[in-house]
């Protein structure tokens, strides 16, 4: 990863689904988002490096038997160049719903 300053994305908070949008570095990379998806799952966004390339990892983490969260196979890893298109697609999909149905 480069030493460039990364933008801090704004996370949405929805009711009891607490979101964290400050960045933190750990063994997985730099974490930018942590949203509670259910009692036993969290959705996390990381920027990580693999084989000398930088990627954005959007993944569901599950609560393991030991009480700590671990990454699941549910998620995607994309190059940063694809982020704008992915965000646009998610935004369009979200707008396609009737706001009254969103609860």
Automatic annotation (TrEMBL):
Superkingdom: Bacteria
Ranges for domain Transcriptional coactivator p15 (PC4) C-terminal: 39-87
Chain intervals with Polar residues compositional bias: 11-25
Pfam families: PC4
Stretches the record annotates as Disordered: 1-25
Gene3D superfamilies, A to Z: Transcriptional Coactivator Pc4, Chain A
GO biological process per UniProt: regulation of DNA-templated transcription
UniProt xrefs under SUPFAM superfamilies: ssDNA-binding transcriptional regulator domain
GO molecular function: DNA binding
Protein name in UniProt: Transcriptional Coactivator p15 (PC4)
């Amino acid at each position: 990863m480069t030493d460039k300053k990364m933008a801090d994305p704004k996370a949405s908070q929805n009711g009891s689904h607490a979101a964290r949008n400050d960045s933190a570095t750990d063994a997985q990379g730099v974490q930018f988002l942590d949203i509670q998806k259910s009692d036993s799952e969290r959705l996390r966004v990381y920027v990580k490096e693999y084989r000398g390339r930088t990627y954005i990892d959007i993944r569901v983490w599950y609560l393991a038997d030991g009480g700590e969260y671990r990454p699941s196979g549910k998620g995607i890893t994309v190059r940063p160049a694809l982020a704008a298109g992915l965000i646009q697609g998610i935004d369009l999909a979200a707008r396609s719903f009737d706001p009254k149905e969103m609860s």
